[in-house]
Design goal:
- With about 240 residues, the chain is mainly α.
- The protein has a single domain, classed as Cytochrome P450 (Cytochrome p450, Orthogonal Bundle).
- A two-stranded antiparallel sheet has the order 1-4. The chain has a two-stranded antiparallel sheet with strand order 2-3.
- α2 crosses α3, α2 packs across α4 and α6 packs across α8.
- The chain is globular and about 55 Å long.
- The chain starts with 7 loop residues before the first helix and ends with a strand.
Length: about 240
């Protein structure tokens, strides 16, 4: 409901603190508190929708749960948290960092301003060039050998998305921003069973915002060098000051 949307962004920001390496006690406490508050809010909303269904996602999840016991309440809550929460940091950071990189590459920005058909490939290249999620952790479920190294069951590994997106064996001139890059198999949305379920929506959002800014603010320019957020896993800027 529109009247309930104000806490979503703060909850999202606080929950994402748990993704950083070695979060402080204060950050961890905020993340836990936000998770508990968000969960309790969803329990109440699910109960309300169970009594009075509406034309919305939660009512659809309830119907699926009640009809075939396909989703537990906790699974419904986890799904809602994922859908409402997951895209906030990533899409915001992709947008802001993407524009900063465009300002740092004026020739590429000029090409984009002159030819808006480059927007789809520009979105992919900006995601590759400076991905909003530099790494993510996984836990190994079975012993596996990777390039001659045995990784045992239970090991924790870090997947370096930022490094993979600059792999010279995959990308020609990997350290060059090329908005017209045709072959771009970046892994900013991960891969396999962990592939981001919000990737199609993220691409639509990024392309729409880029198109709107190019059309409505064709002379957009940077007025102050930005400061990066201190996060190591989730990569973003404190802000981006511009003039229209």
């Amino acid at each position: 409901p529109e009247s309930d949307r104000a806490p979503l962004r703060p909850w999202s920001a606080d929950i994402c603190g748990m993704y950083e390496l070695n979060p402080s006690e204060e950050v961890a406490t905020r993340a836990v508190r936000a998770s508990v508050e968000f969960t309790e809010y969803l329990r109440v909303l699910i109960e309300a929708r169970r009594k009075e269904p509406a034309d919305d996602l939660i009512s659809g999840l309830i119907a699926a749960h009640d009809a075939g016991d396909r989703l537990t309440e906790q699974e419904m809550i986890s799904t809602c948290v994922l859908l409402l929460n997951a895209g906030h940091e990533a899409t915001v950071n992709s947008t802001v960092t993407g524009w900063w990189n465009l300002f740092r590459h004026p020739a590429q920005l000029a090409d984009l301003r002159a030819d808006h058909t480059l927007i789809p490939s520009a979105v992919e290249e900006l995601l590759r060039y400076d991905t909003p999620l530099q790494l993510f952790e996984r836990w190994v479920l079975d012993d596996i050998e990777i390039d001659g190294t045995t990784v045992p069951r239970g090991a924790e590994i870090a997947l370096l998305f930022g490094s993979a997106n600059r792999d010279a064996e995959v990308f020609a001139s990997p350290d060059t921003l090329d908005l017209s890059r045709a072959e771009n198999p970046h892994i900013s949305f991960s891969a396999g069973i962990h592939y981001c379920i919000g990737a199609p929506l993220a691409r639509i959002e990024l392309a729409a915002s880029m198109s709107a800014l190019l059309t409505r603010a064709p002379g957009l320019r940077l007025t102050e060098e930005p400061v990066r957020k201190p996060g190591f896993v989730i990569r973003g800027l404190e802000g981006l000051k511009v003039e229209v």
